[in-house]
Automatic annotation (TrEMBL):
Residues 1-24 are annotated as: Disordered. GO terms for molecular function: O-methyltransferase activity; S-adenosylmethionine-dependent methyltransferase activity. InterPro entries: Cation-dep_OMT (IPR050362), SAM-dependent_MTases_sf (IPR029063), SAM_O-MeTrfase (IPR002935). Belongs to the class I-like SAM-binding methyltransferase superfamily. Cation-dependent O-methyltransferase family. Keywords: Methyltransferase, S-adenosyl-L-methionine, Transferase. This is O-methyltransferase. GO terms for biological process: methylation. It comes from the Eukaryota. Residues 1-14 have a biased composition (Polar residues).
Amino acid sequence: MEPSAGSTSSSDPNRSLPGSWHPMPNSGHYVKTDHLAPGVAEYAASHSAPLHPVLAKLCTAGVGGKIEIVFGDAKKSLDDLISRGSCGHFDFIFIDADKESIDDYYERSLQLVRRNGVIAVDNVLWHTRTYDPAVNDPDTEAIRRLNRKLAADDRVEMCMLTMGDGVTLAVKK
């Protein structure tokens, strides 16, 4: 299987950009959403400033043309991809974003990923908080709800990797 598209939502561009862009065929495409304060992207573009340090590195590596960085709200960006007809076109989606909206990202990702495509959800152990019953902040509760949902979701086969801060891999049926 050759990858055709990938996506990620993240607030940390240096950590979340997966290595799947490099083996991607010339026809492949990668979309990265990044939330910036309003006006930052426009200011950088109008002043010829480098817009994104990760993209600059990827351009140097010769794969920058495969990457599209979308600045702004990740939910809106995913909705835009859905409305542009990208449902079922993604092989891999990596979710590492605000935790209170994690279920929204998952549901949108399920629409965008193709059958047998992978959705990776980062931080599913959330610094050990998800299995500490004394912790009940909104972020932790949102992750717990998604973890329970993924375990029971018959639309995917899933596996939780418990190394580090935890990552769940969900393969769409």
